[in-house]
Amino acid sequence: MNVHDLQRQVTKDGLSSLYLIIGEEPYFRDHALNVLQLAHQDEARGELSEEITRGEPSDMFSCDVVYGDETDASEILRITEEVSFFSQKRRVVVKWAEKLSARDGELLMPYFQKPNAATMLVFTAAKLDGRTKWVQLLKKQAVVVDCAPLLEPQRAGWITQQARHMGLQLEGPALEMLKEQAAEGLYAVIRELEKLAAYVPEGQPVRLLDVELVRGKPPGISVFDWSEAVSCGDHARALDIVAKNLETGEAPLRMLGAFLWQMRRIWKASTLAQEGKDQGQAARQAGIPPFRAREFMAQVQRWKASDLRRAWMVFAQADSALKGGRASQPKLILDDVVIQLCQGMKRQLARRG
């Protein structure tokens, strides 16, 4: 089940004794833990007398959180047997369960088969080795909550829904930029939406320019400036933009995603222009604000289809390198992208000249 299914299941059937919250999206893992915490607190309120519940029931006496790299099976088992004075069911959360040793996992297997009814034991992990016996048994016996990242087709709907909850209405280009950011995790999108809710006047649609402004990028190092430098073959300027982005703390994969997103807009506008659209229409349908349309279409005209296809290959290689064995060298990888693209554009411009 996913997080929304968990909410329905808890409301309908109450709390279970064993949960596994697993998946690489931290936002969903935290949301699932929050669902269980609120349900547990509601249960405690219903059980405690009016005198005791004048304040909120404290998690301090009915919840324990341990970490897989700092605990072992004996500690987990000991805590699960402790009695809670504030609720009939104690809550025990084992975070980073992937860091538990195989031996500790196997020692927990008898508990998985017969968990303590007075305890809710929750394991959370980004990934677990499904080949191990203890993980296989845990998945069989526990209520499993899938917290996998959203697929690309799912991101727009999720972002739109979150924006609506914050009173925001996203224009298409603004939504597209936030979709690219969602590839790095949903917390990043939530932070941007919170900033937009504080920045954009109530009732006014959120534009692409608003998203760019609240990101707080220092002037002169935007993805638009990067694509302008590359399209002119100005490798010095493009390399400087990469360096400044890294200095301000930008994640290398996020930078590459932003560069790729800009190239998609260039390719789309180029295709639209070839189909007979005028420059204004092509820029608008590619999601470019009117004040940047002329500059953007000047970039588009410098790129040929063969250059765009070659750029796609360069981006694919860089993406693989940033996620693979060269991930510890992000600047070298991004610099290589810049140099390859600028060299290609220089040759293209020289042939035209």
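Second entry:
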Amino acid sequence: MKTLRDILQESVKEGELYEKMDNGFVRCVACGHRCPIPDGHPGVCKVRFNRGGKLYVPWGYVGGVQCDPIEKKPFYHAYPGALAYSFGMLGCDLHCPYCQNWVTSQALRDPRAVSSPLRATPEMLVRDAVNQGAKVVVSTYNEPLITSEWAVSIFKEARKAGVKTGCVSNGNATPEVLDYLRPWIDLYKIDLKSYDDRHYRQLGGRLQPILDTIRRTHQMGFWVEIVTLLVSGFNDAEDELKGLAGFIASVSPDIPWHVTAFHKDYRMTDPADTTPEMLKHAVAIGRAAGLRYVYAGNMPGRVGDLENTYCHQCGMTLIERYGYHISKYLITPDGHCPSCKEAIPGRWAEKFEGQIASSPYLPYFRQRGAQLTTLD
């Protein structure tokens, strides 16, 4: 009987993000690990591997597909109310003990993570995204950087169909992979998990590549939003939050920063769940650092007005939210405040067209199993 690893090693093609080295090694440049990989072995991510001196990468499947309000990603300054057709594969280059998508991200590390990959094509996924009414197609759930070749093939189809594109990433990138992605991606959300390198090493990474990615993506013209999952005793120290917020503000005070609530999940069951007061305090730190758009997430109705978007110039309420639901939208078609005419940073539609859904749902074909079939 085939193992998941056997199945995934058949669903591959030669990658584009690697260099050949001596003695049959290859160096993968899809993520900040820059793994030198000997013949017959995978990189840290477990899904990019060397076979005969060539790097093979995931291809032709999805580990999950879902239709999400774009606010769930979260993007608050990019097409509010839009439907984001979200897909992922399997594997990750980090191993966060609190991962909420661990069933897909840790599929080849943790025997409890059982996820059945489904056969798919870029054309099929984009066609379904259009049929669902999605405005954006997003690579998410696992780490998009390690499946960049597959994501780009889908994004190329999305561009042909007039659909926007985005990534929800841990930000552990390289200049090479960002150059590869830039022509095909509009939106880039980055998890800045901590501002302490020791904490990042506990998660299997390093802080500096993530900071470099934030600077570089902003300079390259991606629309960037930053998320920090606030975990008691891990990344919520006053000095750390001040440093983190100050760093984002040094890149641009217009980058939205989302602080979201931790709840016990996967292997992290010791810290207390994040409270609304903790989120409010982090928002205050962000604003004091000079950030103009700081949001508290994952606690609808419990964080006061910290889900809403306000004009940084005159304070007018521009977008009112409850969770993923948009209840008020006043930004002008050209992206300005209607009161003081200040330009509001973001990617805005010409008009608010309402919401197809204010909660996630599975696409109809996934429910019926009519087109996506399990790899075997």
